[in-house]
Amino acid sequence: MVRVVKPEENYKLPLTKPVVGVAGKTGLWRTMRPVVDNEKCTRCYQCEIYCPVNVIRVEPELGVTIDYEYCKGCGICEDVCPRSAIVMVPEPGE
Amino acid sequence: MPRVIALTGNHAVAYAVKLAKPDVIAAYPITPQSPIVEKLSEMIESGELKSSMIRVESEHSALAACFGAAVAGARVFTATSSQGLLYMHEVVHWASRARIPMVMALVSRTINTPWNIWPDHSDFVDQRDAGWIMAYAMDNQEAFDLTLQAFKISEDPSVYLPVMIGIEGFILSHTAMPVEILDEKQVEEWLGERKQPYIVDGSEPLGLGGLTPPEDTEDMFYGIQVAMEKSKDTIRRVDREYGKLFGREYGGLVSCYNCSDAKYFAVAMGSWSGDLIEATSKLRDEGYSLGVVRVRFYRPFPHEDLWGTLRGAKGVFVFDRAISFGAWGPIYTDLVAGLLQYTSKLPPVVNVVAGIAGVHVGAEDFYEVLKSLIGQVESGLEHGYFKWVRVRR
Which of A92, B119, B211, B359 has the highest CB neighbour number within 10 Å of its CB? Predict the structure, then answer.
């Protein structure tokens, strides 16, 4: 049998729990932005499935929405889209 | 009921592990450690011990398997020697820095190359900075007792660090002496259920050891240092408890022999301390005022205990069975730094490095070396405190 008992001293343990934005606004890293044309989108869900940071949602009515706060602009969604409904465009410079 | 049987050092460790009832054992065979896990395998095979034995392809995997199981809440055990321990080294750090209790037996064997199976302490002291509590036994009974105590210390909420128990290969591992095996029920009651600071078993999403900024990482490591300091009291308490229950108390982090009235002190760790004690008894009969301090725990380093005993000494002789090439013996370095926490005026503290690569150093050698060193100190030895004594017959 095992029991979890907190350590006597109160120093940090190397544990993390998944929360939104734990590493900050990672969307700030982006140099290219995915832009969606929902007229072309067939709701195939490939972009949602392949997005490595889980910021894409596909809804039957709305089509594709992307959370740009955390999208790093990797371009995988553009690559997997069979209808070229997603296109990467440069972010405006400062 | 407790019973006394003749056991090798390896089997003494195995019998202690059996009483601690680990859930998981993973190890890879290596001379001179193999008989520990062979014995445990036999116990599992015959149904005496209900543990899972994970057979792995390397020592790195052995400790990784133990680590994973321990993180998920299992009491675990592994054992290794020399090159095997070096191969494990990455995971050795994982366990301590993740604050996961576990126990490892190290059966010391000289580090290659050249290929050498005889014991010195080079493999043990090589793990010095890994954050493990490190203890070394003098005989097979102590190997048994320390192994059991290791589980108790490791799982104490004031500690939560892995514990490594060292014995010398062949000198202890393959020679037998009468060892008292404790009563199963009594041990179970004393050891209690496993405690650990957290469990990662999939019941909630948790990440272990993810990318952590420097400040947070430093805080975690500071916590290990604090736990190391706190563990000293835990080690002493466990030793006393064990003494009361089972009749053997060793003095905590160090054991002293003839120290109360001594002017000179010899310091050593491991099985050759027995030969050293024999030599000092003879020297005492000849009128030399000599005591022996045996280092039982190397990490945390027992500087308080050493200062308590060695303060006022006319001379201290530190015997190291390992060498930090280009510097000195590892115990010597720590002992000098430790004493300097209390005083800026040290008596002559001499380092004797010997028994390297398993060279036999017997009571007669300690006798000659100590007699000569005391003579040198009495006639005003002021420098040349480091001596590598290469015994040849």
Answer: B119
